[in-house]
Amino acid sequence: MKALYFNHFGDNSVLQYNSLPDPEVKNNEVLVKMKYIGLNFADIYRRKGNYHIEKHSPYINGYEGLGTIVKLGHKVEKSHLGDKVLFVDVPLANAELVAVPLSKIIKVPAYLGEKTAASIGLQGLTADFLAHDLANNQKHDQVFIQGISGGVGQILLQMLVADGINVYGVTSTKKKQELVLKQGVSEVYLRSNKWETKVSGKFDTVFDGVGKTLDQSISLIKHRGKVVLFGMAGGDPKKIDALKLLEQSKSIMTGDLWDYLTSREERQFRFSRLVKYFSDGKIVINDPKIFSLSEGRKAYALLESGQSNGKILMRCD
Ligand SMILES: NC(=O)c1ccc[n+]([C@@H]2O[C@H](COP(=O)([O-])OP(=O)(O)OC[C@H]3O[C@@H](n4cnc5c(N)ncnc54)[C@H](OP(=O)(O)O)[C@@H]3O)[C@@H](O)[C@H]2O)c1
Q1: Buried-most residue among 115, 131, 177, 311 (CB within 10 A)?
Q2: Mean pLDDT across the chain, nearest whole number?
Q3: Is 133 a pocket residue for ligand 1 (Cβ < 6 Å)?
Q4: Enoyl reductase (ER) domain spans which residues (predicted)?
Q5: pLDDT 10s digits, 16-54
Q6: 121 CB less than 6 Å from ligand 1?
């Protein structure tokens, strides 16, 4: 099979595209012939060597993708052959073939287009667990999203709006601002403008996947409010003073989606809950940006540039 891989951690130049041996399929696994591979910020952290990655030689990055089951492990029922499936937490996914434990597959409903399904897997399930497991906001709550124009940001904001919550956010460019304003946000600020003092202490919840903005996020929540910290696309947060939080009854919650995907049933239930927003027309996303896997370096470069505003996929031809 062809794969995108690296031998040493580093910048984009470490990525290589070439032939590697096909994966071995264990008893409870299926072999998925990949059509679309999802690129995520965590893949950049992993390529740099500052995030957990499955030990493998050479390293094949990636944990998300969509494809068809073409081979079964000995203990897997024959009925699964030919199924269209998605996965969001299986290593070695930047490749044409991926061995996937049966417990980690998510069946994709026929009415959901392949491109849409591949685009909403990890980012959509992340938005879903941030909204429904971590923040648990009530109707009419005021919430704020850092990096609101990103893939997770756009799905999360539309989900919250559909749930009756008032959503605000900040973004880096006018183009991104216009994009998210069409999605039901109450107000979107430009990071380069002076906006912070106007809304300091106003929010019940701030969702922060940018990381280095954590201090600002803490100042934006009201007393008894919470920051949901879920990533560091813009850089690591500074250390925080827990006693200062205590004085104002402010909280910080964190979470990793994978700790919430504990069984096949759990994955399928969460995916169905997510897909309902799309089939009800409550969430609409723009088309993903698609690169061929052989041009994977370009896909990584775009994500890392901060210029993207939606899902980036790599296609296996
Ligand atoms: N906890 C979990 O389980 C989990 C799961 C999936 C993803 N995540 C995290 O969620 C975050 C968002 O992921 P995503 O897939 O939505 O990524 P994305 O589409 O690239 O969005 C990230 C957004 O962050 C903003 N940003 C600010 N500073 C940036 C910088 N220096 N470089 C790049 N972007 C910067 C950008 O928005 P503006 O231009 O609008 O500021 C960008 O659109 C990431 O931190 C990721 O690690 C966490």
Answers
A1: 311
A2: 96
A3: no
A4: 10-314
A5: 999 999 999 999 999 999 999 999 989 999 999 988 888
A6: no
Contact 188, 312 (CB under 8 A): no
Q: Looking at the domain assignment, is residue 114 inside a domain?
A: no
Same domain, 130 and 203: yes
Please tell me the predicted confidence (pLDDT) of residue 55: 86
Specify the ligand 1 atom closest to the Cα of 153: 16
- Domain membership of residue 115 (yes or no) is no
Check pocket membership of 41 for ligand 1, CB cut-off 6 A.
Answer: yes
Residues 152-175: tens digit of each pLDDT: 999 999 999 999 999 999 999 999
Domain match, 102 and 147 both: no
* DSSP element (H, E) containing 46: helix 41-48
Containing structural domain, residue 41? 2-108+287-315
CB of 303 sitting under 6 A from ligand 1: yes
As given in the structure block, the two tokens for residue 3 are 């794969």
User: Could you say which of 217, 239, 257 is where a domain stops?
Assistant: 257
- Please report how many Cα atoms fall inside a 13 Å half-sphere around the Cα of residue 78, on the Cβ side: 0
Give the integer Cα–Cα distance in Å for 103 and 291: 29
In a domain, 29, yes or no: yes
